[in-house]
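call fold(seq) -> tokens
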Amino acid sequence: MGITSIFIVSGGANILCGNIMSRKLKGKFILRALKKHLKEHDWTYEMSDDHSYWLSGTAQREKIRKIILDAYKEGVGAEAEMLFGKHYPKDGCHAEEGYGIRINHFKGLSSPSKGIIKW
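ret:
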């Protein structure tokens, strides 16, 4: 795969735009969006007595799931899993599969958010 196009913009600057470059940028954008949504997510929404919190949390979880699926499609799934592991509190939360995570990286970890491995 190589660069597919070269564009000349006013002022004479060359902008290289190609499949590889756009894929890398798209992956970075996906990871940035995922990080934002993970930070803002109400991880304990399922424990709320208020149905509106449950609805909001479910919508947030679905959005995170779609972003993670996009990350897998763009080849940044491993990075998305690492980001998820940093934010996912594990206890009292929806299972990681419900967020689109394909591999359970948390087996054998004493704390997924800290990434400490039990030996």
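The longest strand covers residues 5-8.
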